[in-house]
Design brief:
The chain has eleven helices and nine strands. It is an alpha/beta fold. Strands 8-7-6-5-4-1-9 form a seven-stranded parallel beta sheet. Strand 5 (about 75-80), helix 4 (about 95-110) and strand 6 form a beta-alpha-beta unit. Helix 5 (about 130-140) runs parallel beside helix 7 (about 170-190). The relative contact order is 0.17.
């Protein structure tokens, strides 16, 4: 099984202590984002988990727990972009993030950490020239600490259009110009450029367009072959990333970006993070929140308490009834 911690919420940045508890207790319960009554239990052990994939914009809070993660094969995606606080008001100083990236690379190795420079958008402030200059400076600082950088251009989804109305699609000519410039800079610093969901747009310029979370990437990370399930499909038609088991709740992080969260959703995520911290500071004997809430969906083992709080009509069925629908649905 590949355990994924980052598609929905930045666990390393905001819930590192919770994740450490999950490792120690050996399981995690995950509420479906589409059907709140469906809860899946994933066992966390060396016998079951082939690889843990982390996606984060700040790995530093996980450093105190790296010894607990060390027995597991790991692959990290760390996003470092050149945008200021007007675009990413919840992100720490980029120099500190880069220093944390370098420290993480020293722990896990350059082959097991990938830099994400995405999404790329262009406006009057963040021009093509600005991106080229910023990217080269970041390459200079990260050279030797990673072998790969993933780039992609901003897609104007409905949520992006709502939360980031001034954003515009990057014109094709600018994609080609900027893409080639970044690829050439990457070659200079021995950093391979991969594209994410951009098709073969930059293949002729020298980009690796095979995908960022592919079977080969993860096999290289663990040093052995992976057997995918029959009927495997990627997460979206333009993406070749392989299926994995997400253990996060949506909108659980407070590192707001304009494209990702509305102001209301950002405040809600902030309340969730603060509540999470209060729970862990309250000491033994506290009552943990419901399954899936705050990502604390396995904390303390009070499964019946969780279930009664959200499913009073099903109380007589026992906790096994809640878990049975998802117990055998763990993705590889």
């Amino acid at each position: 099984m590949i355990l994924h911690t980052g598609n929905r919420t930045d666990i390393p940045a905001f819930y590192s202590r919770w994740f450490y508890r999950r490792l120690k207790e050996g399981y995690v319960l995950v509420r479906s984002p589409y059907d709140p009554s469906l809860v899946t239990r994933y066992e966390i052990s060396k016998e079951v988990v082939d690889l843990i994939v982390f996606c984060t914009k700040n790995p530093a809070p996980m450093f105190p727990y790296m010894e607990a993660i060390a027995p597991y094969s790991q692959y990290w995606f760390v996003t470092v972009t050149p945008y200021g606080n007007e675009i990413e008001p919840g992100i720490r100083d980029k120099k500190r993030i880069i220093n944390a990236f370098r420290k993480l690379s020293d722990i896990v190795g350059a082959n097991n950490i990938c830099w994400r420079y995405d999404p790329i958008f262009i406006d009057k402030t963040y021009t093509t020239s600005y991106h080229i200059k910023a990217f080269e400076e970041m390459c200079r600082l990260l050279s030797g600490y990673t072998n790969t950088c993933v780039i992609s251009f901003l897609d104007i989804y409905q949520k992006v259009r709502r939360n980031f109305p001034q954003a515009k699609e990057v014109p094709l000519q600018d994609k080609l110009l900027l893409g080639k410039a970044l690829i050439d800079i990457g070659k200079k610093y021995n950093i391979k450029i991969k594209t994410c969901a951009e098709g073969n747009l930059l293949a002729d310029a020298g980009a690796d367009c095979s995908g960022c979370m592919t079977q080969k990437v993860f096999e290289d990370a663990i040093g052995s072959k992976l057997v995918l399930p029959k009927g495997f499909k990627g997460s979206r038609k333009e993406c070749s990333c392989i299926l994995s088991s997400d253990i996060e709740k949506r909108s659980g992080c407070h590192e707001r970006t304009q494209k990702a969260l509305s102001r209301g959703a950002w405040r809600h995520a902030g309340r969730r993070v603060r509540r999470h911290r209060r729970i862990f500071q309250s000491g033994p004997g506290h009552h943990p929140p419901a399954v899936g809430d705050l990502l604390l969906c396995g904390h303390g083992g009070h499964l019946a308490l969780y279930r009664r709080r959200h499913h009073p009509a099903q109380e007589k069925r026992g906790i096994s009834g809640l878990l049975s629908r998802g117990r055998d649905r763990g993705a590889p």
